[in-house]
Amino acid sequence: MNRAGEVLRFLREGPGYVSGDLMASRLSISRTAVWKILRHLDRMGYVCEKLKGKGYRLTGAPDLLYPWEVERYLETRILGREIVYKDSVGSTNGVAFDMALAGCREGACVIAETQSAGRGRLRRHWRSPYGKNIYVSSVLKPALHPSEVSPLTFISCLAAFDTLASLGLTPTLKWPNDVLVKGRKICGTLIELSVEPEAVAFVVIGIGLNVNMDDADMDEEIKGKATSLFLETGNRFERARVCGMLLNNLEKYYEVVGGRGVDEVCRLWEERANIRGVSMEIVQTDRVYRGVSEGIGRDGAMLLREEDGKVTRVIAGDVSF
Ligand code: BTN
User: Domain of 99?
Assistant: First the structure.
């Protein structure tokens, strides 16, 4: 946590007004340095009330995903222990990928308030209105063979699923990487990776979770197809808290990868998605598969029993039921 984060922690812990002298002595910095930090916080959107002879009291905070705000909710060992925060970025996945190439630590995250070129699956654009949702990418370095890496997409879906469920929603999972509420998409995940011949060098897991977005933030293409926590509940959510919960859950499922392995991740995803025995259609650019799901393969592929009784492994596509 940086100095601004530490001063904020003092102000939040209170109780009541906190004197500048106390903060200066606790942080081993001068009274002037504390004052400069308070001025900096003011410029970042925090509101502090000053009472002569008593000190400062925090009365307002911006709904921004500053690293120290997210850190308040983190219970992780590796994820989010380094956070790169950007007001605006092309794609958080792009920044995280470059950081990983430059050798950043495992668990480093990139969080942005908006993305001008948010990447979706199948080269689609991910709409990223400013200050409304969560756009986060995490760098992981799992000890996996490249052939085992696909199910990692499930850990991000499971993390979003648990986060939404603990906020009172009833999410559903759609293969391969969507999280829906009442049939509308609330979260999408995108995995990008760098592989060596026999091992995965690193994986970037990007998650876009719609939090406070409302209809006015959506263009015609996604209206009626997308939703958010706000649209589902009528309540605004503190994004830093939701982001912390999401990263806590992501680490929980990442630990399953290192522990019981990717098979267990597939099993958990399949259980939550309740997919076995369901009739579906999977559309690819040049092909349509129809059949009944026999579950998920060890590589994350959909196992589809087609009308001729043959089981086909489908590795990508858009599912409809
Ligand atoms: C999808 O098409 O469903 C995947 C969407 C993934 C969007 C997230 S937002 C954070 C990260 N950065 C990106 O550019 N994409 C992912």
Answer: 67-272
Using CB distances shorter than 6 Å, the residues near ligand 1 are 91-93, 115, 118-121, 124, 126, 135, 137, 177-178, 188-190, 206-208
What spacing in Å lies between the alpha carbon of 1 and ligand 1's midpoint? Answer: 27
245 Cβ neighbours under 8 A, 6+ residues apart: 73, 163, 166, 167
Question: Do residues 56 and 74 both lie within one domain?
Answer: no
Residue with the smallest CA separation from ligand 1 atom 15 is: 119
Q: What is the pTM of this model?
A: 0.94
pLDDT by residue (tens digit) across 27-68? 999 999 999 999 999 999 999 999 999 999 999 999 999 999
How far apart are the C-alpha atoms of 260 and 270, rounded to whole Å? 15
| Across 33-37, 75-79, 145-149, least confident range | 145-149
Q: 243 C-alpha to center of ligand 1: Å?
A: 15
Residue 96 CA to ligand 1 centre (angstroms): 12
Kindly report, residue by residue over 268-293, the tens digit of the pLDDT.
999 999 999 999 999 998 999 999 99
Tell me: do 54 and 74 sit in the same domain.
no
Look up the CATH number of the domain holding residue 53. 1.10.10.10
Q: Cα–Cα distance between 192 and 263 in angstroms, integer?
A: 20
